[in-house]
Amino acid sequence: MNHQRANTLKAAFQVCNVEPLEGADMERYYVDLSAVRKTSAIDSVSTILDFQEPADFSTILFTGHRGCGKSTELKRIQNQWEKQYHVIYLEVNEETDINDARYTDLYLIVIKQVEFELRKLGLKFDSQLLENFESWFKDITKETEETVERSVSIEGEATLKPEAPFIAKLMVKLLAQIKGSDKQKTTIRQTLEKDLSRLKADINLLLGDAFVKLRKKFPQYKGLLIIFDNMDRVPPTIAEHLFFDYAAQLQELDCTIIYTVPISVLCSPKNPLNQFDGNPHIVPMVNIYEFERDRCHLNYNQTGLEAVASVIEKRVDINAVFESRQELLDLAKASGGHVRQLMQMMRTACQTASTRKHPKIIAEDIIYAVKERQFSFERFIPEEHYAFLAQVCITKNVSKDDIGQLMLFNTSVLEYNGEKRWNYPNPVVKQNEFFQKALESALAAQP
To answer: Which of 157, 289, 308, 402 falls between 20 and 30 A from 334, CA-CA?
Structure first.
């Protein structure tokens, strides 16, 4: 496979992008890291999908740090199960305001996407069910065929064609308003919540109709599988609102749904995920350390480091791009086992080496790339967080409060698995002088 690997700094920069793997790139670049993550998250999701019979429904929670590789794994789940389920893969941030998402937004997204998928397959919702649903929506939203037609561009929306029904165009309009206007967003949500039971009942009638039609045309399908990706990007306060206040509503749609959940929710004192039937499936960091509870500065786990390095090696000819393999291992150490951080620093190192006219990446290019990530964290970490970060280094556990959730959300603290679940500061944060001072004070205060 050497001929497929990047052998110049420019080519290495291009192949080390942070986008989820799919298609040919999945075959070419995917590295199975489950063993060094110490997790069976992917296999356990597949077991649920395997055990289900037609007309069974599950709500599956999938979590991990942003950039840990969840989207790539979800793409694999999609590929593995698309022969037994009709899979609808959604990036929630493309559909609604990710910084202020509500469960009613997700309901609208489901109807929009399921109708579109049926239409692509040459199928339609039952005309009477659809007419009832459309009439109710017209009544509560005061929208008409004319008002929707005036504000929706068929050419500008991928899910619309001239033959699209009124409900499809209305969903596009409402979701655009939710994403773009605070005032309209509030009005739409309050209107829908006034008669939530009717909204939910009608959606489930349409989902039931879709199931029957899918099974008739494609008897091999167990049903719909909807993957809500990028929901892990919602801020911790919004995540608690969704997965605690409205946990029941997220589980009441008659189809199988995978929700990506911010890892910060795992450390909420409300324990919101306790309201869901199954445990969350966690994709932790690649474990690059030898865990010792009583040791602040951990030694490295060579197996974990080599696994992280292999993510780059799968894409890049190491001998052609690095002065020595040590630079690659130094990059792996600085990543903390975080795949996106690894790729970001690799791209910076490529650019730095090229700018400095180095034929290959040398040690000073890695140092610069790591410093760049360090400075990025310094710009947004509040000064009061460093005392908490020092405690995480000492105890290997993040506090179950708002600060702990925020540190997990912004990846200044990382989550690892092994024989125990544990946390550790991001290695680029550990280099920070504020962290070093906080750690020195915390250690001095110990008995």
So the answer is: 402
Distances (CA, A) of 107 to 192, 303, 388, 445: 10, 44, 38, 52
Distance CA 110, CA 239 (A): 19
Q: Are 283 and 39 in contact (CB under 8 A)?
A: yes
Residue range 206-219, pLDDT digits in tens:
999 999 999 999 99
Measured CA to CA in angstroms, residue 293 lies from 289, 304, 387, 393 at distances of 12, 18, 18, 9
As a whole number, mean pLDDT of residues 152-164 equals 74
Query: Nearest-CA neighbor of 74 among 8, 20, 17?
Result: 20
**Residue 343 CB contacts under 8 Å (≥ 6 apart), including other chains:** 16, 17, 18, 311
Side-chain-facing half-sphere of 120: CA atoms under 13 Å = 11
**DSSP-derived pairing of the beta strands 413-416 and 422-425:** antiparallel
Average pLDDT in the 103-110 region?
A: 94
pTM for this one? 0.90
Classify strands 256-262 and 224-229 as parallel, antiparallel or unpaired: parallel
Residue 161's contacts (CB-CB under 8 Å, 6 or more residues apart) are 119, 154
Q: Of 61-65, 80-84, 106-110, 334-338, where does mean pLDDT reach its minimum? A: 61-65
For residues 368 and 172, give the distance between their C-alpha atoms in angstroms, rounded to a whole number.
Answer: 45
Tokens representing residue 136 in the block: 């109710």
Rounded CA-CA distance 78/92 in Å is 16
88 DSSP β-pair partners: 226
Q: Are 140 and 134 in contact (CB under 8 A)?
A: no
Please count the other Cβ atoms lying within 10 Å of the Cβ belonging to residue 166.
Answer: 19
- How crowded is the C-beta side of 378, counted as CA atoms within 13 Å? 14
Amino acid at 109: I
Please report, for the chain, how many H helices and E strands are present, in that order.
Answer: 23, 9
- Owner of token pair 């052609």: 320
Q: Rounded CA gap, 199 and 367, in Å?
A: 55
Residues 408 and 398: their CA atoms lie apart, in Å, by 8
Residue 312 in contact with residue 341, Cβ under 8 Å? no
What DSSP string runs through 262-284?
EGGGGG-TT-GGGGSSS--EEE-
Contacts for 127 with CB less than 8 Å, ≥ 6 apart = none
- Contact (CB, 8 A) for 104 and 240: no
